[in-house]
Amino acid sequence: MENFAKIGVIQHCAIIVLGMHRSGTSAITRALQVLGVSFGENLMPPAVGNNEKGFFVFFEINSLNVEALQAIENEWFYLKPISLIDVDNLFEKGYVMRAVELLRSKIESTNFFAFKDPRVAKLLPFWNKVTNHLQLNVNYVMTLRHPLSVVKSLEKRDDFFPERSYILWLGHVLESLRGSTGKPRVLVDYDRLIQSPDIELSRLADAFQLEINSVELEEYKNNFLDVKLRHTVYSPEDLLLDVAC
C-alpha cells in the first residue's frame, strides 16, 4: 500500500474497483461510500436473485464495456484475453474517445470518483489507455474471493461448468494484477470484509488517506452487509478436493 494518492488534495483522482464477477465487487464499491466517495446517479438498479443490494455500476460504463467487447468479438465470459491489437482496434473504432468523454463528464464536478464493472478487469489495458490520456491519478481496489465460491455462484446463476469458471476467475485476477502493476492498489478479500468490516474499511481509509464516516459505517454494517448473502465459505485447502480445479 505504498505511494497512494492523497485523494483529498490532488484533483481528478479515480478509484477503480477490479475483480471477477460474483467476487463481492458491489459490496466493496458500496463500502467506499463510508469513506465519503459519491457515486452520483444513473446506477444500475438491484436485481432480485442476482444482486439484491445493488450493483453500483454506472449504466453508461456498463453499456460501453459490453459494446466494446462485442466490437472485438469478445464477451466477459469468453476465455480469450484482451490483446494490444484489440486495444488498437477499439481506438480505431472510437471507443477510447467515447470512454474519455464519458469519464471527463463524471469528474467535472468532483475531485475524485469511483467506478466499477467486473468487465473493467478484462478491459483493463483499454481503460488504462483512457485514464492515462486523462492524466487521472488512479488508485485500484482489487477484490478477491475464494474461487470455489465464485464457481458455485456462477454455476447457480449462469449454469457454467466449473472448469470455465475457474479459468475465468484466474484470467480476471491475473489481468487485474498485471494491469495495475506499479500503480497504487489495495487488495480486499470479500470474506474478510464480511467478517471484519471495521478492519477492512480502516485499511481502505488509511490507504486512500480518507476519513470514515461513523454514521455511514453503521448504516453499511447494519443495513447493507448481510452474512446471509454469503452462501459459501471455503478454505484454500478445499481447492485440492475439487477435481475441476
Please characterize this protein's 3D structure.
By secondary structure, the protein is an alpha/beta fold. The chain has eleven helices and four strands, in the order E-H-H-H-H-E-H-H-E-H-H-E-H-H-H. A four-stranded parallel sheet has the order 2-1-3-4, with helices on both faces. Helix 4 packs across helix 6 (124-134) and helix 7 (147-158) crosses helix 8.
The secondary structure category is: alpha/beta
Mean pLDDT: 88
What order do the helices and strands follow?
EHHHHEHHEHHEHHH
Shape: globular
Note poorly predicted spans.
Answer: 1-10
C-alpha-based Rg, rounded:
17 Å
Question: Level of helix content?
Answer: 40-55%
Number of helices: 11
Order of strands across the widest beta sheet?
A: 2-1-3-4
* β-sheet strand percentage: 5-15%
Distance between the termini: 31 Å
How many strand elements? 4
Q: Sheet with the most strands? A: 4 strands, parallel
